[in-house]
Write a structure and sequence with these properties.
mainly alpha; 2 domains; 5 helices; 2 strands; coiled coil; transmembrane helix; membrane; cell membrane
């Protein structure tokens, strides 16, 4: 199984390097369109940067993954909260059971109380 993982990672690396070499041209990224950048007060948000196209492609992929991970984490919050609530309830019920068993077994012989707990 380890060799399959290494083969997959090698194939992925080859594909990524090939994409990077094929997209070395410079691309200009603007934070605002030119028409909106001309609006007074918006010039503070308007800037441009030139990057190789493969950096733009890979940054877009990473940004999409991060947004997806955060979205999924937020979406599953209710499930994690429910699990935490149920775990707290189980711990409380276990404590109550031990207390009830201790009260029930306080007048019994120790050997009999141990046998009741085991069975």
């Amino acid at each position: 199984m380890r060799y399959i993982r290494y083969a997959f990672l090698l194939a992925l690396a080859i594909v990524l390097v090939t994409v990077a070499l094929a997209n070395r041209g410079m691309a200009t990224l603007n934070t605002l369109p030119q028409g909106l950048a001309a609006v007074p007060g918006m010039d503070l948000l308007a800037f441009s940067v030139q990057l190789p196209l493969f950096v733009v492609i890979f940054a877009g992929i990473v940004a999409g993954l991060l947004i997806g991970f955060v979205w999924e984490w937020l979406r599953e919050h209710k499930h994690r909260a429910e699990v935490a609530r149920k775990q707290a309830e189980v711990k409380q019920l276990e404590r109550e059971l031990k207390r009830t068993q201790a009260e029930r077994d306080k007048d019994k012989d120790e050997v009999l109380a141990l046998l009741d707990r085991a069975g």
